[in-house]
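Schema walk-through. Below, the input block comes first and the output block second. Nothing else is stored per chain. Lengths vary across the set, and this one has 79 residues.
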Amino acid sequence: MSRVSLSRNFAISLAAVLLGNAIYFLVMPYLPPAARHRSYSLWPDLGLLIDFWICLVMYGVIALLFRPHTQRPPTEQRR
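--- output ---
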């Protein structure tokens, strides 16, 4: 894996985690108590699962928006 690819993946992952956590903590007061993260708990709770899911969705969105563009041949040459 090249250094550019590795740093690109790291940047996308970092942005996804920061943005996902920001979204989760902004929405957390409106979630039901069972879906809120409890920091005093040693066992993973539903809040961590929801936070992970939001970060995963953000990773997909960011990776889709900033994917490298490749040149596609004209439609006559594709066949």
